[in-house]
Amino acid sequence: ILDVAYATLPQLKASEYRFQMSRKDFRMAQALRSPSIYLSYDYTTRYSQSARDPYSLTLRPYPEYTYREQITDNTFGRLFLVVDIPIFNRFSAQNQISKAKIRVSDAELEMEQVRKDILRIVQQSYTDALGANENYAQALSSVENYQEVYSMTARRFELGQASAVDLGISRANLTSAQIE
User: Fold this and answer.
1) pLDDT in tens, 79-121
2) Residue 51 — very low, low, confident or very high, per pLDDT cuts 50/70/90?
3) Is 23 exposed, middle or buried (0-12, 13-18, 19+ CB in 10 A)?
4) Exposure b/e, 34-43, CB count within 10 A at least 16 = b
5) Cα dist. 69→45, 56, 60, 66, 72 in Å?
6) pLDDT tens digits for 149-165?
């Protein structure tokens, strides 16, 4: 029963997934110690009605210096290469690693607590089931006893040795035992 509970209950699955996620977060935090390389490219262009033609010394107003010519003449591209080496980053990487390690421990403890709670619930349910079975057996025995008392009271009533009140009480006790 416990193995089935461990395999199917969503509380345990959720805590296991949180534990796995915290371990991956820890590995990602450890990666903050590694250097990073970024490569980017920036492409820009511009247009202005009062733009100056870069290839002539005169000011050419808009109709002469068209939009298409300005876009073509004023294009710029830049390539960036950034190398980030986290040597002294005010210990932020180490702090994040320490916090991630604590989250892993918390998730592991939570998972163990969920396992213990499931074990406790299963054991309590088993004990309750045993107690209920025992109560049921006692109730069956009680019904049999009250059935016999009722039949004896009914015979005594037929012979005139018991009153109708005794028979009614006996029937009420039997009904109460059957209900229980």
Assistant:
1) 999 998 888 777 888 899 999 999 999 999 999 999 999 999 9
2) low
3) middle
4) eeeeeeeeee
5) 11, 13, 11, 5, 5
6) 999 999 999 998 989 99
Beta strands per DSSP E along 11-164 = 36-44, 76-84
What's the pLDDT at 58? Answer: 66
**Do residues 21 and 110 touch, judged by C-beta distance below 8 A?**
no
The two tokens of residue 117 are 């709670």
Measure the CA–CA gap between 92 and 45, rounded to whole angstroms: 39
Residue with tokens 């009722």: 150
Altogether, the residues listed in the chain come to a count of 180
Which two three-digit tokens encode residue 53? 């033609």
Residue with tokens 């990602």: 28
In 3-state terms, what secondary structure has residue 87? coil
